[in-house]
Design a protein that fits this description.
single chain; about 70 residues
């Protein structure tokens, strides 16, 4: 959950706030919506990289190293 580290305080409490509207009820509902979105995104599994992404990583990051470190894709 490193992507939400800025929303966790020193006590370990997860904080969500909203000042979108002047209504406290609407802001509370907005906080619940934000919490649900954060939970859904934290529960998603990362996708496997595509062949294009693997090749891009290979050419951009590994190309400067000596040829003995290369492996076949």
């Amino acid at each position: 959950m490193l992507q939400f580290a800025s929303k966790v305080n020193k006590k370990g409490e997860y904080t969500v706030f909203s000042e979108r509207t002047r209504s406290q009820l609407n802001n509370t509902q907005d906080c619940y919506d934000k919490l649900i979105l954060d939970l859904k995104s934290a529960a998603e599994f990362p996708k496997d990289p595509s062949q294009e992404q693997i090749e891009r990583i290979f050419t951009n990051w590994l190309a400067p190293f000596p040829s003995q470190l290369y492996w076949e894709i």
